From TrEMBL:
<feature type="domain" description="Transglutaminase-like">
    <location>
        <begin position="135"/>
        <end position="226"/>
    </location>
</feature>
<dbReference type="InterPro" id="IPR002931">
    <property type="entry name" value="Transglutaminase-like"/>
</dbReference>
<dbReference type="InterPro" id="IPR038765">
    <property type="entry name" value="Papain-like_cys_pep_sf"/>
</dbReference>
<dbReference type="Pfam" id="PF01841">
    <property type="entry name" value="Transglut_core"/>
</dbReference>
<protein>
    <recommendedName>
        <fullName>Transglutaminase-like domain-containing protein</fullName>
    </recommendedName>
</protein>
Amino acid sequence: MKKLFFLLITLYVFTACQSKYNDVPDTYHTLLDSALIKANSNAPQILKALTDAPKNQKEGMAFLISYMPKRDLTTLSASFLLENAAYAYKTREKYPWSKALPDSIFFNEVLPYTNVAETRDPWRKDFYERFSKYVEDKTNLKDAIFAIANPIKDEVKVEYNVKRSKVDSSPKEAMAENMATCTGLSIILTDAFRSVGIPSRLAGTPMWTNMKGNHTWSEVFIDNEWKFIEYYPEDLNKSWFLADAGKADPNNPLHWIYAVSYKPTNQYYYAGRAVKHLINKMDVNDMPAQMRKGYENSKKHDSISEGPYIYGVNVTQRYIDLYEKSLKGKKLEEDELIASFIIFKDKDIAKSDSRLDCRVDIFMEDEKIDFGYSPSATDDMNKFLKLKLKKNTNYTVMVSNTKNNIEHSFSISTDDNATQEFKLIL
């Protein structure tokens, strides 16, 4: 009986779709066939969404359906999808920043109804009605971004609170409780941006390199690049966590910075999969004290449970570059300097292959002052790890690389200049 039902569904999809793909680019046809088979008994609803979508919305609807997680293919109604698309396209017609977007950005970072694993609430219409009034007189995208971000907590009446019932709460769930963690707050902020045609996505890390837990925030696409912003905003690309993000380890997925993609990529968004894969294999009792504390903090405060269908992009290097740029722009105190570090495995320091990517910890007597990661053999030869230190001071530098079984210490002394380079040879 099951086999017969599957064959009937397959036949239904095949015959129905032949006349329904007329306004959809050929590149989606095979993907749509596959999606409708996965939808099983919900295939008529999914097909109705595609069929009833206005001609100018067909490709966007095809994009959503083609890359839709199975959990949504089997449950979402045509009315849910049609309303979501209608309001997304309404913003594209209304706002200059949305009208100017390439399809690839509009489809992937404005049109989607979801971010990670939150409940699929129909938030789009409600949020458009809530937030469109804030951008009515805006013609500049940055002004529009902050016209949403500045009043958002007062509009939705949601504050950060770890007592929330869920980590990845939907806007409706967070607003019912008046609380959310950073994941829930970021979902609200990203959905608010999308509701007025501003491309936005979630970003975050499974675990900071200082092992103090994880974090999630939002990104917006402005001036043809992605910039980060928080629910409690300071400015674009400015927040308390930049120093932590800038010290991410580009060689360890546990410490990468990830951004969410609706369209499948070649890797998953962190959403706990990196945490589970790289940490949960360990016995918690065997973890170093700092890692164990960070792991427990991560479980308490943010998500380590989202599903395997959430895709991501590795944006680690962009955050490292942003942090290094911020250091250059900082005014140094009279007794401070910027120290640049690079680690070599041999004395041939002119060769790119001699460089080693290592963790570099700086100590003054027994107190750890700072840390970071030195450039690898494939990085630009002008790239250094930059740290702010005191002038005319003695330090101990601990260099480690577990993959290559390296652990070495150096004694260094800073001088009286504003900058100083340290090329350390193992």
